[in-house]
Specification:
Layout (H helix, E strand, L loop, with lengths): L2 H10 L7 H12 L3 H17 E3 L6 E3 L10 H4 L6 E5 L2 H10 L5 E4 L17 H13 L5 E5 L4 H21 L2 E4 L15 H9 L3
Parallel strand pairs: 3-4, 3-5, 5-6
Antiparallel strand pairs: 1-2
Helix pairs in contact: 1-2, 5-8, 6-7
Length: 207
């Protein structure tokens, strides 16, 4: 492979779950496509960056091609949402939960998880931003419950435990509940791959 194809393969290998071999397959696939496909792909990538922004409240990325008066996503702009905040580790988890049609509250994206035995866990997630938003909602009487929706694996459990300990002083001060998704999720499950019925069950049986 020459310099350009090697560089492109290196860029593809930066994608989550993509190794060098699969990255090279992507490159050769692109080489076999016509110019119209390449242009459509490049335009879509540029359009994604141009018209996608991070919500000022939940911090998830959302598509907003039209100009709006603030940087809040459609969910956070919805005044009919319940006084419940669901904490997730990544944006894709919100899509899975919204498909279930059961949860009607707001979200907060931690932006990652806390590995077990991590020495500086607060640097792995958006803990400070979460605490600031929880206190703000509580003072405005817009928070009655927090639900942890982490992947049901050791790292997800460790993240929930760490964040819960930091939220407990605020829960006592403002009198809101802290719960986690209940039965319905199998051990080792990643939330983004869970089907709507499984998520419905987990929400119904939150503890």
């Amino acid at each position: 492979m020459d310099f350009l194809t090697t560089k492109l393969a290196d860029l593809f290998s930066c994608f989550p779950g993509i190794g060098q071999r699969q990255a090279k397959r992507f490159v050769y696939f692109l080489l076999s496509q016509n110019p119209a496909f390449i242009k459509e792909l490049s335009d879509a990538i540029l359009d994604l960056k141009k018209n996608t922004r991070a919500c000022d409240f939940c911090l998830r990325y959302y598509f907003e091609k039209l100009a709006v008066s603030n940087n809040f996503c459609p969910i956070c702009r919805d005044k009919n949402r319940e006084k419940v905040l669901m904490i997730v580790s990544k944006d894709l988890d919100i899509e899975s939960i919204e498909k279930s049609g059961v949860f009607k509250g707001r979200y907060f994206v931690l932006g990652g998880t806390v590995p077990i035995l991590e020495q500086e866990p607060e640097k792995k997630i958006r803990l400070a931003a979460l605490l600031e938003r929880v206190e703000k909602l509580s003072k405005a009487s817009k928070l009655e419950e927090i639900i942890f929706a982490m992947d049901f694996n050791p790292e997800g459990e460790n993240t929930a435990d760490f964040v819960r300990k930091n939220l407990e002083p605020l829960a006592k001060k403002f009198n809101f509940n802290i719960l986690s998704l209940g039965k319905g999720l199998s051990l080792g499950t990643e939330l983004e791959y869970s089907d709507p019925e499984t998520i419905k069950s987990a929400l119904k049986n939150r503890v």
